What we know:
By secondary structure, this protein is an alpha+beta fold. Helices cover 20% and strands 32% of the residues. It is built from 5 helices and 11 strands, in the order H-E-H-E-E-H-E-E-E-E-H-H-E-E-E-E. The strands form 2 sheets. It has a 7-stranded antiparallel beta sheet. A 4-stranded antiparallel beta sheet has the order 5-10-7-8.
Amino acid sequence: MNYLNSILPLLHIHENYLNEKICDEIVEYAEKRPNIFRDRSKEYINYGIDGEIGNYYAAEISNRSLIPLWEKYFKNLEFDGLTPTEVQLNKYPEGSFIPPHKDEGIAFHTISIPLQTNNDNYLIFGESEVYSEGINIDKAEKEGKIKVFRDKKGYGYRFEGTQPIHWVPPVKSNRYSLVVIF
Length: 182
């Protein structure tokens, strides 16, 4: 069995997990406050499985940080009877990326939510060689090496646990997403 087949049961799609109005409000909040983001290539570095460092920005949303967003949208958000332990608002200027990695820490469920629709930006799960060897994404997807989740505003792309290898290839346009950890 290939790697993708072993993790497919852990991957799920939740259509319209957040409504478009909420997505737009969060993007507007972020764009009015560019200083809320940390450069993840310098702080809280997210190393890829091959040691590569991503190039993107993140802001924590919690009862300690960006409290208005936490109180309005996430404090009472539930999934499978759980409330979020962490929410990250990620910002990717054009060309930014996260290399293939496995998440650290403890999570029962992680839900990635694109805040805009763009079929040229995506989240990918599967064999990291597709990334490291520069294999064409469409070809790799057809060959069953990767699963591609194209950015669709408000959709929740959920994975269970922390083990599935995933990445965001260099984005074609500015991108915002949320990562909600339960």
